[in-house]
Amino acid sequence: MSYRIGGTKDDLRAAKRQLVTVIDLNKCIGCQTCTIACKNLWTKRPGTEHMRWANVSTWPGKGYPRDFEKKGGGFRDGQPQPGSIPTYEDSGDDFRFNHDEVFYDGNGQSAHLRPMRRLDGGTPRWGYNWDEDQGGGDWPNAFFVYLARMCNHCSNPACLAACPTQAIYKREQDGIVLIDQERCKGHRHCVEACPYKAIYFNPVSETSEKCILCFPRVEKGIAPACNRQCPGRVRCFGYLDDETSHVHRLVRQWSVALPLHPEYGTEPNIYYVPPMGSRGFGADGEITDDSRIPVERLEELFGPRVNDALKVLRQEREKQRNGGKSELMDILISNIWKDRFGGFDADPLTPA
After folding, report:
1. Which of 266, 247, 236, 199 has its CA nearest to residue 48?
2. Mind giving me the DSSP string for 191-242?
3. What is the pLDDT of residues 144-176, one digit of tens each?
4. Nearest Cα to 3, choosing from 172, 163, 213?
5. Cα 236 to Cα 27, 192, 196, 308, 312, distances in angstroms
6. Torsions phi, psi of 102, nearest 5?
7. Which residues contact 221 (CB under 8 A, 6 or more apart)?
8. Beta-bridge mates of residue 56
9. Which helix (H) or strand (E) holds 316?
């Protein structure tokens, strides 16, 4: 059943197919192209300045919004869990700058660029990527990974379950989760319920907003901007049940792409190829074959299945290194760029 005002929660949750994204954390270089592509399209309107529907933060770190993993929500044993709402500052603020004083008031070298908090003009205490590249580990085995995130368009969305006005629903044809802006009353229960804190409150429209997976582009056969604009061939996109798509082969066939925090119970549809990490140094100062990233830290992100995924990735990499042929490595290397998008490879500048 397609979206029907007044439908039951089961009606609103139903979807015949599911679009998914796979992000290879071994290749992301944190360039923020996905963030900018999204922001230029969707969050330049009044009230959306602090929002980054697509974002990239350094892991380990506080993430985006700040400490999202500590703010609750989601499900445990099928039961919804209490959550909290990120502050404007947690979501990155919207810094103001003294451009007139520095560039136009004739102050020479005596004036310097000074960021100010949007709400009270004070000195910033936190902002987007405030802790960028700090990472974790002890010298000489320091490590970090760029973690790109967006709405997970979950199969069991906590936001949908929490909405008291039935404004949130999944599209029947592709599983995209949307918020009906006409029905949303800005109660923000969805913000509390989302364990990934991927929903934001617009103080101007007084409604909740989130990633819409670029559905106007998808309907024209164009991949979402965050996926298409990625310069590193990090992302794949397509229907999970399309056996020819890269996303199906990585998630279902090879089982090397895993959801973030599966214990939240929302069945997310953004998957990650876990990072293998750089080779670490041993106590004698020599390079070892062990990763710098402790596997227990990766289990915190992806659960115990990460061990099997890493084993497969290392086996296939070694096979190719020894002159063999690996279908998995070919998929991840992606010599043919368009193959990554499961048929959603139309040119956004060419009229349909």
Report:
1. 199
2. HHH-TT--EEEETTTTEEEE--TTHHHHTTTB--HHHHT-TTS-EEEEETT-
3. 999 999 999 999 999 999 999 999 999 999 999
4. 172
5. 12, 29, 21, 21, 19
6. -80, -40
7. 343, 344, 345, 346, 352
8. 148
9. helix 305-321
DSSP string, 146-199: EEEE-----SS-HHHHH-TT--EEE-TTT--EEE-TTT-----HHHHH-TT--E
- What's the confidence (pLDDT) of residue 4? 72
d(CA 30, CA 76): 32
Residue type at 145? Answer: V
Identify the H or E element spanning 115. Answer: strand 115-116
Neighbours of 349 (CB within 10 A): 6
DSSP 121-142: ----S--TTTTTT--B--TTS-
* Nearest alpha-carbon partner for 85 in 8, 190, 224: 190
**Per-residue pLDDT tens for 249-289?**
999 999 999 999 999 999 999 999 999 999 999 999 999 99
CA 256 to chain centre: 18
Name the average pLDDT for the chain. 95
Question: Residue 65 carries which side chain, given as an amino acid letter?
Answer: P
Specify the pTM.
Answer: 0.95
Q: How many residues does the chain have?
A: 352
Q: How far is CA 44 from CA 40, 86, 202, 317, 352, in A?
A: 6, 20, 12, 42, 26
pLDDT over 60 at 1, yes or no: no
Instruction: Dump the DSSP string for 240-308.
Output: TT-TTSHHHIIIIIS---EES-GGGSS--SEEEEPP--PEEE-TTS-EEEEESS-HHHHHHHH-THHHH
- What phi and psi, each to the nearest 5 degrees, are found at residue 146? -85, 125
Residues 157 and 179 sit within 8 Å (Cβ to Cβ): no
